[in-house]
Amino acid sequence: MSDQTPTPAGNHSPFFGRIAAALPFVLTAVAAVFVSLAFQFFLRPDPAPAVFFTVTPAAPSSAAVAPTAAEVRPTPSPAPTPREGDVGILRLEVIDLEEEDRRLWTALYLLRAAAQIDDTIVVLQVNDFGEADRTLMAARRSLDRAYELSSEQDKGPIDSFRLQAGQIRDDLGLRPEGADRRLRQLRQLILALVDETTE
Predict the structure, then answer these.
(1) CA–CA dist 166, 102 (Å, integer)
(2) pTM over 0.85
(3) Are 77 and 150 in contact (CB under 8 A)?
(4) Which of 78, 80, 81, 59 minimizes the C-alpha distance to 70?
C-alpha cells in the first residue's frame, strides 16, 4: 500500500505537545468560571433581611397610674441590593469564560482526532486494516465531540471532517489504495482549523 516504513511512536509528540500546551488554558478557564459564579452568588441580596425593633413608650393614662409596658414594633431594614451594572458585567464575564472554555475543549478534541488519524496512517503502512478501522472510528468520535462543543462558524468545517473520515473508513475494505494520502490531507485540515480557533 505504501513503501514508507512505519513511523515510530515518538513522532506523535507534536500532537500530544499541543494537547499538553492547551490543557493549562482549559483548567484556568474552568477555574475562572467557578470563581465568577461564586462572586455572583455572594452579590445576591439576602433572602431574609434583618429585622430591628424600635421601642415606643406608651402614652400616660389620665388616672396618673404607673406607665404601661412599652409597645414593641418590628421595623424591617431595607435589603442591600447589588448594583445592576455590576451584575450585568459579571454575567457577561461568565458568558465569555464559558465560550472560551468551549473553544479550548473543541481544540483539544480536534487535536485528539489528528493524533488518532496519525495512528491510523501508521497501522495502514503495515496493512493492519482491523486496527486502522478501530483508530479511524476513534478519530470520528473525537470529531463528533468537537462538533458538539464548537461554535456555529466551526460546525461546517468539522462536519466536513466527519464526513471525510467516514468515507475513508468505508473505503478501507474496498479501495484501501490512497487512504494514507487522504488521511494526511484530512489531518492537515484539522490542524489548520485548530490554529485558527486558538489564535
Answers:
(1) 25
(2) no
(3) no
(4) 59
